[in-house]
UniProtKB/TrEMBL annotation:
Keywords: Plasmid. InterPro entries: Fumarylacetoacetase_C_sf (IPR036663), Hydratase-Decarb/MhpD_sf (IPR050772). The keyword Electron transport does not apply. It comes from Bosea sp. NBC_00436. This is 2-keto-4-pentenoate hydratase.
Length: 246
């Protein structure tokens, strides 16, 4: 099961296809596959995508260091219906948050953050998304993360609960929304208290994204995107070029 899942995901990353069947995975094996894929790619962890999974279980997927980009980056993205963009809040940790016996409080999380920025997550699901594929396999596939783009950082002040974000595609307002947990720190707090990954956990200097303020939005042929959470500086991403669709 473990070897098959790692092999399938490496095939998908390298060729975009696989002939092997995709099956569900226990979360523990999903986390092991995350680690094995990173090792096979020679990648290091630059941050984390944390979320509340099915049944209210806190989950996480690594943001590979090579896939984290600065504001205004130009990315080579296909113009099809597989690529989605999400407006996020990115938190840079000032200190480690190791697993511990005494549960972390929200105040502990606030104290562990150094800076904050508007951000984009580029979702590139290599095997598909639930319910098309089992959630355990989606976890192994880094919860679909393809890239993360960070806006200019701002000194850390906790955002007000219920703050809203906006997404513009080609300068046209395309979506607005608020965090799915209302409190953008909720999923980070939840995961800090039940860490299960096998890649070192939450470390100082890493970036953490905690959930999309705007629902996943198809990028399609848009050449540029701009996002802003609350009063933070906007984040921008551009297409390197627009490939033709056969």
């Amino acid at each position: 099961m473990l070897a098959d899942a790692t092999r399938i995901l490496m095939q998908l990353r390298q060729t975009g296809r696989t002939m092997q069947p995709i099956t569900d995975l226990p979360y523990e094996i999903g986390y092991t596959v995350q680690r094995e894929v990173a090792e096979a790619l020679g990648e290091t962890v630059g941050g984390w995508k944390v979320a509340i999974g099915p049944g209210g279980v806190p989950i996480a997927a690594p943001l590979l260091a090579s896939t984290i980009h600065g504001d205004g980056v130009r990315l080579d993205l296909p113009a099809d219906d597989s690529i989605k963009i999400e407006t996020e809040l990115a938190l840079r940790l000032a200190s480690d948050l190791p697993p511990r016996a005494v549960p972390y409080t929200r105040e502990d999380i606030v104290a562990a953050i150094e800076s904050v920025s508007s951000a984009f997550e580029i979702v590139i699901p290599r095997a598909g998304e639930p319910p098309e594929i089992p959630f355990g396999f989606y976890l192994a596939d880094y919860l679909g993360n393809g890239a993360t783009v960070l806006g200019p950082p701002t000194s850390w002040t906790p955002p007000p609960q219920g703050c809203r974000a906006q997404l513009w595609l080609d300068e046209a307002l395309s979506a607005t929304g608020e965090h799915p947990q209302i409190d953008p720190l909720a999923s980070l707090l939840a995961y800090a208290n039940c860490q299960a990954d096998q890649m070192g956990g939450l470390r100082a200097g890493q970036i953490v994204i905690t959930g999309s303020f705007t629902k996943p939005h198809l990028l399609r042929k848009a050449r540029s995107a701009r996002g802003q959470v609350g009063e933070l500086c906007p984040v921008n991403v551009f297409r390197l070029e627009l490939p033709s669709i056969s």
